[in-house]
Amino acid sequence: MKFKLGIILVILLLAITGCSEHVESESGNAVQEGAKTSYEKSDFVLGTIVSVKIFEDGSDAVLENIFDRLSEIEEKMSFNSTESEVIEVNAAAGKSPVVVSEDTFEVISRAVEFADLSSGKFDPTIGPLVDLWGIGSESAAVPSEDDLMHALEKIGWRKVELDGYKKSVYLTQENMKLDLGAIAKGYASDEVVRILKDNNVGRAVINLGGNVYAYGEKQDGSAWRIGIQNPFTTRGEYLGIVEVKNKSVVTSGIYERYFEENGVRYHHILSTETGYPVENELASVTVITQSSIDADALSTALFAKGVEAGMAFLENNFPEAGAAFITRDNRIYSRNLEQFNVEWTDPDFEVVQ
Asked: How would you write 56-115 as a 3-class SS string?
């Protein structure tokens, strides 16, 4: 449904350089600043650039543990690998169940739960459509109506059978395909948080290609300041700022991955109803929750639902979540962002609520 590659959210400079915990290393080595030692590492994993910056009680060993764990998750859940557990499940579609690891079973189970909760606006069986459109690859093109129809026939979360005792996954129809790209990075981010807690790390910022987790607080006790990307301008330009502690901030939008054909732009958030990219009033949705896996899946589901239905969905199912719906006509519909001291900084946008 989405490939949040690249930086969607920006950690504001004042959140990092505005304190003595400035980090410059990309190798994983410590950087000494006064009495503080900070650690940072960046690498390409899970299909995106991942950056982890530890500002207190870190070590090279903790960073290596984190990136080893991220690589392990990628090896199990990659949609593009030739040997991942997800690929094995897809290859056995309509034939037999496949026993998978605890990690993969957990993510698929949560994905199916979100699909059921959102009435299919989020659906991990989107794989046939993702393959067909090829957005993000050199072969990206508008499919024929016949091809779209055949792809849609293979989609449906209700056709995923899970056996919690055996930890097996069965796609009941041939040529079905799971794609966990809209939820796996959320799970991975939560795993990084777990490792930080297990190692008694005090403060850190995690960025999985735009899936940002602000862990702990800044040295002076204040919250991290996170910028929300302006969906109509150059990456890195933000339209608002939120202040968060121990929260995940995730954005989905029409601007990160797309291609143009015959003067029409086609983005990567695909509808399981029409087979085409979702068409509604939205340009992007930002979600703030404590759980990254929730924020990851929600950002896709809410984008597909649109403003009104998305607001109602949050109220009924995730009342504590914060969200910002940015429309194509430069309006901002916000929900529960007051708790994060939101500051809208771009005068070109109208804050509706």
From this structure: ECCCHHHHHHHHHHHHHHHHHHCCCCCCCHHHHHHHCCCCCCEECCHHHHHHHHHHHHHH
